Amino acid sequence: MTDIWNDLTQRAEAVKTRPIIRLFDADPARFDAFSAQHDGLLLDFSKTNIDAQTLSALQALATETGVAAQRDAMFSGQAINVTEGRSVLHTALRPDPSRPVMVDGEDVTVGVRASLDLMAGFAEGLRDGTITASDGQPFTDVVNIGIGGSDLGPAMACRALSPFIDRITPHFVSNIDGAHIADTLAALDPQRTLVIIASKTFTTIETLTNADTAVAWLKDAVGEQFGAHLAAVSTAEDRTSAYGIAPERVFGFEDWVGGRYSLWGPVGLSVMIAIGPEHFSDLLAGALSMDTNFLTAAPAENLPLLFALVGLWHNNFCGYESRAVLPYDQRLGLLPAYLQQLDMESNGKHTTKDGTPVAGMTGPIVWGEPGTNGQHAFYQLLHQGTRIVPAEFLIAAQSHEPGLQHQHEILKANCLAQAEALMVGTQQDDPQPSPERRFDGNRPSVTIAYQQLTPFVLGQLVALYEHRVFVEGAVWGINSFDQFGVELGKKMAKDVQNDPEAMAQMSASTRGLSAFLA
Ligand code: F6P
Q: Which end of the chain is less packed: N or C, by CB atoms within 10 Å?
């Protein structure tokens, strides 16, 4: 551990029980000093125990671990995914016209733009009815079949942007559990439905099995013309053509886009079909705005860096093991699930880039639910439980329901009040309540605020979280872009299903359960 790390550890010991509210008494400008804004997005981290010295020590930690150089290596296309020998270029999917990205002597943004044009042509054709179903009539519904990064991003974005959805309704099937596809298809007319099979590798058992079920459903209804109802998104065009999907219906991308970072390109096709290419461009513009902030803003104005430093402070120095994502925005209901993959699949690692064991804690547990529902469920533990869970509140100034603004005012009041209550607790000057009615307070939170949940703002938010994950991984020295931890369970599932010899070697518990479930 370095001197800076040790200093932060001692600092946390000394200050973590200091009442956060006292920091506001001591510094009337604390809100301004411990918040930052970029392009209409506000990140307030003043309700944490971070003071000026701690913040500068955290900034020194980022400097010492070479975060800026690692960031520049990612943006410029170096092969920072060292275990897989790949560049990490999801940022090139929201191309900056003034910043070519050279990989193997080629500017990859040229291909990105061509791919976005192809997607837009297809999406527009579907939306204006020039690309039709097998009976010559327009499509009304699109089903995206994919899992993990080939599902969570588009599903989360379509729910978030439902006020922008017109003409074609998106649906998502991910789980191998037949209940998922059965319930989804039962509500749809195959004559009016386009199915997109989304899989980076085109080998994922859940997706290929659900795809077979969907193809059988289409064939039953439309016969040999079923190909008109299919499209695919993948990096493996050999596999999509072996599956029988016409090449002009395949939207390819490169292996330098990680699955959980792939919303911005062809994996976002269902989103583009649902909200239209213009709104999809706004989503990319929002992400690019956050990229620009991350790349160019000074540390004190750099939202992803600040957000990550707060996360590191809570995780590594205060010892808080999880983070609760609490969108006071019903349409961000899938954001916690999306962030679970983004954060936990990226940073749930036990070795550094050079293969040595990590020295301290890496990725925290991410969980959450929209407010106000969570208030009537698990906030009891947030306020009075024995663990401290740093909370992340998200809230818009305006709703999309002008006629229901009074409800939005109640929502905002609840969001602000919960963050305040977590921090302040029951003040000393309150009449002393009985112990079970006492709130100790001093529970930190971050609030992210924006005007309204638009495609641009969603792009900003997701890129903010992507870069927070990046900075935290960079400080820990891990590779945030592989996911070998998902492999063992996948292999064992095959053994359980198909390999009696391997099954015979498994524990008595697994054999007993298997016998019970036979
Ligand atoms: O098993 C994990 C994973 O590889 C994720 O990283 C990925 O997003 C998901 O599976 C789906 O993979 P694919 O897009 O290749 O079907």
A: C
Note the pLDDT tens digit of each residue in 106-145: 999 999 999 999 999 999 999 999 999 999 999 999 999 9
Nearest CA residue ID for atom 1, ligand 1: 486
CA distances from 304 to 38, 69, 471 (A): 11, 15, 8
Q: Single out the catalytic residue among 13, 301, 490, 494.
A: 490
236 alpha carbon – ligand 1 mean position (Å)? 13
- Ligand 1 pocket, residue 268 CB under 6 Å: no
314 in catalytic set? no
Please say if 90 is a catalytic residue. no
| Nearest-10 Cα torsion for 301, 303, 306, 309 | -150
- Helices in 328-404 by DSSP H: which ranges? 335-339, 346-347, 379-384
| Nearest partner of 144 among 181, 192, 102, judged by Cα | 181
Question: For the residues of 307-345, what is the DSSP string, one character each?
Answer: HHHHHHIIIIIS---EEEEEEE-GGGTTHHHHHIIIIII
Question: Ligand 1 center to residue 200 CA distance, Å?
Answer: 7
Q: pLDDT digit string (tens) for 166-214?
A: 999 999 999 999 999 999 999 999 999 999 999 999 999 999 999 999 9
Query: Other CB atoms closer than 10 Å to residue 367's CB: what's the count?
Result: 17
Q: Where are the alpha helices (DSSP H) in 243-378?
A: 269-275, 277-296, 303-312, 335-339, 346-347
205 close to ligand 1 (CB < 6 Angstrom): no
End-to-end CA gap in the chain: 52
Contact 319, 457 (CB under 8 A): no
Measured by CA distance, the residue closest to atom 9 of ligand 1 is 148
* Residue 19 alpha carbon to ligand 1 centre in Å: 43
Q: In sequence order, which ranges of 67-200 are alpha helices (DSSP H)?
A: 67-75, 108-128, 152-160, 178-186
Residues 484, 321 contacting (CB under 8 angstroms): no
What 3-state class would DSSP assign to 87? coil
Give the 3-state secondary structure of residue 23: helix
Distance CA 443, CA 228 (A): 55
Angstrom CA distances, 269 to 196, 240, 442, 448, stand at 8, 16, 44, 28
- 376 carries an active-site annotation: yes
CA atoms within a 13 Å half-sphere pointing along the CA-CB vector of 56: 2
Atom of ligand 1 nearest to the CA of 150: 14
Length of the chain, in residues:
518
Q: Is the Cα torsion angle 185, 187, 189, 194 positive or negative in sign?
A: negative
* Residue 317: both structure tokens together: 């120095």
Residues 414-446: pLDDT tens digits?
999 999 999 999 876 566 778 899 999 999 999
Neighbours of 86 (CB within 10 A): 18
Residue with tokens 């495609």: 455
Say how far apart CA 451 and CA 465 lie, in whole Å. Answer: 18
**Ligand 1 and 486: CB distance under 6 A:** yes
260 C-beta closer than 6 A to ligand 1: yes
